[in-house]
Every structure is written in C-alpha cells, then in structure tokens.
Design goal:
The complex is a heterodimer of chains A (208) and B (289). With 208 residues, chain A is an alpha+beta fold. Chain A is built from four helices and 13 strands. Chain A has two domains: 65 residues, Gyrase A, domain 2, CATH 3.30.1360; 123 residues, Cyclophilin-like (Cyclophilin, Beta Barrel). Chain A has a four-stranded antiparallel sheet with strand order 1-2-4-3, covered by helices on one side. Chain A has a four-stranded mixed sheet with strand order 5-13-6-7. A three-stranded antiparallel sheet of chain A has the order 10-9-12. The chains are: A alpha+beta (208), B mainly beta (289). Chain A: Keywords: ATP-binding, Hydrolase, Nucleotide-binding.
C-alpha cells in the first residue's frame, strides 16, 4: 500500500488490485463511521481510494502506511437486481471478442454476480466488476455521440449502465428500465460502491 | 408563485445559480459544484444580510438583468461591472435597494469574468442533494438562466451590511497559481516538471466551470498510457494527451485517468475563476504545509 499526498488536505492510497481497493474502501468507511477518521470524501476507484478534506493528512498518512490491510469484508449487502433485455447494437461485436455465440453473451453476463467497484463519469454510473479477465473488451474505436439512458454496456473489465443519455464509447449489449439515478429519491443512486448486482433477463435467455 | 421572486429579463451569456455546492457525494460520481469565486459569492451574501450558504447568481462575461417582484436588497461582487436600477447607476460591491418591479441590470465585466449577484433571502430554487448549485458537468441543479425564467426568493433572515463599498481583490493581470507537486508528477520527464513550474502559460478560451485550460509548452510524459481511473480533487492539474495543463474547477469530474502533475492551493482558485482568456499563468511550486 502506497500513500501519496494530494494537495494540502487529501491523500491517494494506492493498492495493487481492485479487490484490495474495495476492501480498503470498506475499512475506511468503517473508520469514518466509528469516528477514528475524519474525511469529507472517500472515493474508491480502480486501484486507489482518495481521501479528501482531511483535518490531519500527515497523521492519517502515517497511520495508513503502518496499517495492515484487513481482508475483504463479508458480502452482507442485499443484491440489487436489474431487469435487462440483451438487445444492444454491439452484442455481435462482444460475442466475437469473447469467441462465443451471441446468445451466450447474455447467458454468461446474466449468470455473473457483479459488484460496484466505484462510481464516476456521471451521477449514479457504477463501474461493475465480476466478469473473468478473458471477457475484457476494448472501447469502441469511435464513441457514440448519444448513448440512450438505461443502456447496459461493457468496456475493459467493467460493466456499466448509463443513468442518462450521454456520449459514450462503451460496447452496448442491452437495456434496462431500472432508474439508476433519481435525485428526488433517497438514496438517489441505485448503485453505490460495494453494491452487489445481478442482471435478470426480462425474456428467457437463449430464445431464438 | 408568491411575490418573493425574481424575473430574468436578460440571462446573459451564462448565468447560473450557485451556493457552496454539494461536497460529500464524489463517491457517487457527483461533482462538488458551487460558486467558482467563493469569496465573491460570500461577500455578495454578507452585503445583503444572507447566511454564507445562500444561493446567488453567477454571471459570465456580460452580466444579466433581473426584475424582482418585491422590494429586495441586492449586492454585486466579483468581477467589477456597471450596475443600474431602472437605468440609474448604483454601487457595485455594496448593498443596493431595488424596489418591486424595478430593473436591476448587471453590466458586462469591466475586468475579470464572473460577477455574483446576492439577493436578500437568497435564490430559493429546490435544492438537489443539499445544494441549489447548477452543475454543468452532470446537469444537477437548476438549468442555466434563460430570458423569462422566474426564480423564487427565500425570506430575508438578516440585516444587510452597512458599508459604502467593500474592498475586493482586482481580477488578476497575471494568474499566479501555487502548486504542490504530485500525486503523478513521476509520469512526466524531469524536464517537463521543470517546464511546468518555470515557463509561462496563458488561459485558454476553452476554459469553463469544469476546468481552466491553458495554452503553452506541452508537457512530455515519461511513461505512456492512461492510469486506471482515480479520484480527483478540486484544483488538480490534469495533463491530457495534448500536454497542456488543465486546472480542475468546481464542476470537475470526480474520477479521471489522465495523470495529475500537481494540485493548486484552494486559496488561489478564486483568482483562476476571474482570469480572462489570454491572461498569463505561472505555476509556482510550493512546499506542502
């Protein structure tokens, strides 16, 4: 674990894997909840957790450098199920990358339990991990100028769902009617870091 | 709508509602947002007797004009400009009484970019995640003002300040930004780091509430590629593939993959909000306190 100072009152804690970042994030949230860590923002990402708005950054840095990283917490949270139709325009391209028939993409994707590694890009946009590395896919060579809200998409090791229409370069494999973000709802974000997620096909997978 | 309201007569190039923003939600991908020139917004509130978190209007380049439906106290701070009520000149940087139905015109910035219009009671649009700020990156909060928009006002809680004109810093002729290096300065060649803190840059016209873009010497990378996405802070100096530093302002994305060479001290960002395109920029390395 490496602790990098960021400006005057933030620290970037770097670890060696996404799993470690998720475990560290859970541990830092626990410390903030019990009152032993005072941070305005705790932002997990792919291989890091950012602590922003620290009262005593040097002291926190020293504590973290000395600390053992506890094992990943038990998966106690309920699973959020997202209804999905595997009807995306890039389904054939993804099938080609994976080396499987198109309907297998749906079966593999719907058979995976995902976890929100981190959020970013837009309010409510989660970067979901869970697919084995052999199913990594590149971004599209030419991003779309408008990806519809509810698009279920893949890029690199991640699955994501577009909370609203926006430009995007991810490979679109399906659509969901789930409302990912509603600022009038509490909580506004359906997915937050650590949330477990399953995609549930609206129509049985494997029909012609 | 009650008579505690403000009708927008001339929205200007880009006028938004701003308060202290919505920090604390970065882990959900929600930018902090909030007034770019915080001290100016704070002054506009103090002059009108509002608490510090009240929402004000943030104009860009050419001001705006509004007509209150009830008598209010207003104060214009930030970028200096000509202020009139029904065509008569009134003070900038001081509390001004605007009678019900009169036209308050906040003129084009004489210097600087963004003027802040505080109104007694504050702009009382519905808050989103605890803030009334317009966030131009994510679209949260009220949309930018358009002609004909009617904005609700809150009830005044305080008494306006008794000053003639409050002192304010002049918009910068040269923008000096103190930076602490890192966390990713190791991604650049030593020559590039030296260039960054010694060569002059200029404010690019492509700057906005998301970032202050610069023109000048491109910074050469010591290693290619992108970082895995990582959390970004206010004032982060991100270097995209074109090599020109971008200083992240209030509406910045919460995560990003381009390396951050340094972070600007928070106290220097208000001046960045007032630097017009073409303003010389110097990044000065300072030690972490």
């Amino acid at each position: 674990m490496k602790v990098l100072p960021v400006g005057e009152d933030a620290l970037l804690v770097e670890v060696s894997s996404g799993d470690e970042a998720q475990a560290l994030h859970a541990e830092l949230l626990r410390r903030r909840a019990e009152g032993s860590l005072s941070a305005r923002e705790i932002v997990p990402a792919a291989r890091t957790v950012l602590l922003d708005g620290l009262d005593r950054p040097r002291r926190v840095a020293a504590e973290l450098t000395a600390a053992e990283l506890p094992p990943a917490p038990p998966r106690a949270r309920a699973v959020v199920e997202l209804p999905v139709r595997y009807d995306g325009p890039d389904l054939a391209d993804v099938a080609a990358h994976w080396g499987v028939p198109e309907r297998e993409v749906a079966r593999i994707h719907a058979g995976t339990e995902f976890r929100v590694a981190f959020c970013g890009f837009a309010p409510g946009f989660g970067y979901l991990t869970g697919l084995p590395p052999r199913y990594d896919v590149p971004r599209r060579a030419t991003p779309r100028t408008a990806v519809p809200a509810g698009s279920v998409a893949l890029a690199g090791p991640y699955t994501g769902v577009y909370p609203r229409s926006s430009p995007g370069g991810w490979q679109l494999i399906g659509t969901t009617d789930a409302v990912l973000w509603d600022h009038a709802r509490v909580p506004a974000a359906l997915l937050s870091p650590g949330t477990r997620v399953r995609f549930v096909p609206v129509e049985p997978v494997g029909q012609p | 709508m009650s008579d505690r309201a403000l009708a927008v007569v001339r929205a200007g190039a880009l006028t938004t509602v701003q308060d202290l923003g919505r920090p604390g939600h970065a882990h959900l991908g929600v930018p902090r947002s909030g007034a770019l020139d915080g001290p100016a917004a704070d002054l506009a509130n103090r002059l009108t007797g509002n608490p510090p978190g009240a929402a004000v209007l943030e104009t860009t380049v050419n001001g705006c004009a509004v007509r209150p439906r009830s008598t209010v106290t207003v104060a214009v701070a930030g970028a200096p400009c000509r202020v009139t009520v029904d065509g008569r000149p009134v003070a900038w940087g001081a509390p001004v009484r605007v009678p019900a139905g009169a036209l308050l015109d906040v003129g084009p910035a004489v210097s600087g970019l963004r003027s802040y219009v505080g109104v007694s009671g504050g702009i009382a649009v519905e808050p989103v995640l605890g803030s009334r700020s317009t966030d131009l990156l994510s679209g949260l909060g009220p949309p930018p003002l358009t002609d004909g928009t009617v904005l609700p006002l809150g009830r005044p809680t305080g008494v306006h300040a008794r000053v003639d004109v409050a002192p304010q810093p002049a918009p910068p002729a040269e923008l000096v930004l103190r930076v602490t290096l890192g966390p990713r300065h190791g991604w650049f060649t030593p020559e590039a780091v030296h260039t960054f803190v010694s060569r002059p840059y200029r404010v690019s016209p492509a700057s906005n509430r998301i970032g202050l873009r610069t023109e000048g010497a491109a910074l050469e990378r010591a290693r290619p590629g992108e970082l895995p996405s990582e959390g970004m802070v206010l004032g982060a100096v991100q270097v995209p593939p074109d090599g020109r530093p971008v200083v992240f302002l209030a509406d910045h994305p919460t995560t990003g993959g381009y390396p951050v060479i340094a972070v600007v001290r928070a106290a220097d960002l208000a001046a960045a909000a007032q630097a017009v395109p073409g303003t010389p920029v110097r990044f000065v390395a300072v030690r972490r306190r």
